[in-house]
């Protein structure tokens, strides 16, 4: 059984993975990924504002000045595989101050896109039940490994050369953002279960 991330980006040059063991069902966790509160992290918002600040202040009118702050809304939803995985895609020149995003209308357009000079990114969230843990004080008797993986494929040497230094510069912050996202998904799922 293949994951959506393998279907949409089987070949890649850059990747990062993070995971968290959570006391919640896979369904509750994947449902929580797109809840508004999950994406409203003040620390993440500050990091993105700092990254976008120069272009918003000094950039061209067609750059970031005229658009909302970067977020999950910029990604193309690629699909959900039941309670196992949720995937999102993004295409652009991420090393540019305005991200150089290429708008995609659906998963098929994302999959077919192969113009040179850009990077193609897939980010997923997957949830895998790891069984019962009644002795550990788990209220619902189920623990789940919640994971996120981000893969990036540069389709020519020019984009690879431009993306590489950007990746090494943003990688520590990107990793922290992903870990905070996992914690916020855990917390959002717990809130839904509690109410």
Describe this structure in words.
The protein is an alpha+beta fold and 195 residues long. The protein has one domain (4-194): Alpha-D-Glucose-1,6-Bisphosphate, Chain A, domain 4. The chain is 39% helix and 23% strand. It is built from six helices and five strands. The chain has a five-stranded antiparallel beta sheet. A hairpin with a 3-residue loop joins strand 2 and strand 3. The radius of gyration is 18 Å and the shape is globular. The two termini are 34 Å apart. The model is unreliable at 134-139 (pLDDT under 50).
| Total strands | 5
> Would you give the CATH topology?
Alpha-D-Glucose-1,6-Bisphosphate, Chain A, domain 4
Kindly report the spatial arrangement of strands forming the biggest sheet.
Answer: 1-5-4-3-2
Top CATH class = Alpha Beta
How much of the sequence is in beta strands? 15-25%
> Oligomeric state of the chains?
single chain
- What's the gyration radius in Å? 18 Å
Described by strand count, sense and barrel closure, the largest sheet is: 5 strands, antiparallel
Overall mean pLDDT? 87
What letter string, H or E per element, gives the SSE order? HEHHHEEHEEH
Termini distance?
34 Å
Summed up, the helix count is: 6
Structural class: alpha+beta
Spans of at least 5 consecutive residues whose pLDDT stays below 50 are 134-139
CATH architecture: 2-Layer Sandwich
């Amino acid at each position: 059984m293949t994951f959506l991330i393998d279907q949409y980006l089987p070949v890649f040059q850059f990747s990062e993975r993070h995971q968290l063991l959570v006391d919640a069902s896979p369904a509750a966790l994947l449902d929580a990924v797109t809840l508004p509160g999950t994406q409203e992290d003040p620390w993440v918002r500050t990091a993105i504002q700092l990254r976008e600040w120069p272009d918003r202040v000094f950039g061209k009118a067609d750059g970031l000045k005229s658009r909302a702050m970067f977020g999950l809304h910029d990604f193309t939803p690629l699909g959900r595989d039941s309670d196992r995985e949720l995937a999102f895609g993004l295409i652009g020149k991420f090393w540019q101050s305005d991200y150089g995003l290429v708008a995609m209308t659906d998963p098929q357009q994302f999959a077919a896109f192969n113009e040179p000079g850009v990077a193609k990114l897939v980010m997923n969230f997957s949830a895998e039940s790891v069984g019962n843990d009644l002795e550990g004080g788990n209220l619902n008797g189920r623990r789940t490994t919640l994971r996120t993986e981000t893969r990036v494929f540069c389709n020519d040497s020019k984009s690879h050369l431009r993306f590489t230094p950007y990746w090494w510069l943003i990688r520590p912050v990107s990793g922290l953002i992903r870990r905070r996202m996992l914690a916020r998904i855990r917390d959002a799922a717990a809130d839904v279960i509690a109410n």
